[in-house]
């Protein structure tokens, strides 16, 4: 972004810098000497001195205003001319015109032009340059046509001006059509025209044509620089360097543009050595503190070296302007060196450089990275004071801060207050919602964006897919998939990776595999998505074979890959494989195990009954073991009825999170397994500790619509049929041997009520709804926010048999595929 800004600036500057050289006036300035006494008079006696002035004296005075940057004195001279009723000649009127153009007073210049009794080519060129400089391209083009129509001379000034104009209008191909006329009128040997033609061809990407022009003209430093720039801008970095060495052999000294282009070439060649030698050249030619060279050096060091080298280059530029400051701050924020970015921003403000939209958006990125709401708010105030809140870059960066800090109110305020929202604004809010687990809101916004015709990007699609995956929205995943197929993103890796992950998370591992198979290229994220997909579906062997294939294709596994692999092993109880993978991860891949890796291993050891090994591993964890680890071991203790160790685990969890309801339930199950009746103890603990009961919620999708069910709440419009179905299921599975397990109910109520409460668990309500409303034979997919309760698990197994249906349930840990009375988790989760 900053570089793009630099570039547009550079083009503008190049045009301006070229102006003095190409200025038509310079060639037409009279050789006549100015009367010395008149000039002195003007300085010494002020305005009255003009009394004696003729056109040439005015011309001289106006030229000195241009050179000295004195717009007010120039205007005063014009006033004086008007007051005296004096009539300037064409030469002097052109200088006056040039004066107005130089100080960007184009409307005054145009008025003067219209009032001129006669005009020549110089008048036209002057005004065309003025309009071009201010972006009034239509006026500039109209004037160019008028110049031609009125029969003025088409000399090299006209052609260079026209070529520059078309480059500025982003229509270089129009400029390149002028080449024929240039040759016909014999200007093709002129080096001014040649330099402009090289630039035109460079913008069209026609490097060979540019070289043709270069070879046929007399070369000065501008022409050489033009050609070097053409090579470096058109991915011919090597040729740029070769041409530069030829230029040095000719004895020419590079200027700041030559050096800037060469530094760009070093970046394309990723050559730090080349970059350093160009740095040496710029030191020798005293350009190292030039702001353009300084900026290019920063860019080169940041991309080829490390950021500290860039910082040294930054420190070397004596008066850094806002672009360089912003660039450096942006670099720090992008490399996640946030305190450096914040520090630099403070220093920038202290050194009286006014921050612009780029500085603000970069410093806000740093605030978002560290999730510092307070600091973000302070920058927000600063932005408001300066009046940059309506700037789209700044507003988007601010929204990102608020989204990352979960401040939804401020996020909405900025989003709805933004008059012109672009795709980034929409994406920021959608991504924010997904991160805050507000999938429904994210999808609502996605639909809104679609309805009003904002072009969705890869970020939009992948975020919407992630939102679907957090709910049970498999049909929505399919719908978004078909939308994607109609866009250029159908082969995009980011979107395809999200499709793989979402299909897997929504319970359709077959489609996930299909999308993976159709992808042209697989990056590490694609492989990880498939491995994790297999892991949550308890397809451990498939996960391992995908890992083998990935290694064969030369993709290096990372920490996420091993989380997938180890959880696949722990879900399937693949002890040996898990053990050797864990060792290989630390030894062969030098990956430091994270808490997630430890949790998987503890789960695996616990599940296979190797409690000593599990405890040994927990002691080896360098940091304090988290709730996740202890809860995993507690689950294993429950399976193996290891009450003593289970109590230790529960104690550890409750030490860290005293209000964890899930542990209380597990503990109650464990006591029951050890035939201890300690439920009342747990109940009083829960009362004392004020244990928050997170309501169990289950989701099920019917024709693209999500229905949610909360435990104990049967307010669904179809409650009568659901109730009837529950009754029928209860009777059916009792006959198949179902005995309700009251240990999962921690309420102090009678057995009859406990029985009723069990049948009002959210997953059962969702299942009954699915059975009555989904077409027979189709699998029923349910998603639950908490852990699958053990009594529901037992009943689902029986229901899959008596109803002859495939039931797929995703709880907070994994998938359970029930078919014909068996669950894919083998009763371990
Ligand atoms: Zn249940
Ligand atoms: Zn299961």
Automatic annotation (TrEMBL):
PROSITE patterns: PPR (PS51375). PPR repeats lie at residues 120-154, 220-254, 321-355, 422-456, 523-557. Residues 737-829 form the DYW domain. Keywords: Repeat. It comes from the Eukaryota. Signal peptide: none annotated. It comes from Dendrobium nobile (Orchid). NCBIfam families: PPR. This is DYW domain-containing protein. InterPro entries: DYW_dom, E_motif, PPR_At4g14850-like_plant, PPR_rpt, TPR-like_helical_dom_sf. Belongs to the PPR family. PCMP-H subfamily. GO terms for molecular function: RNA binding; zinc ion binding.
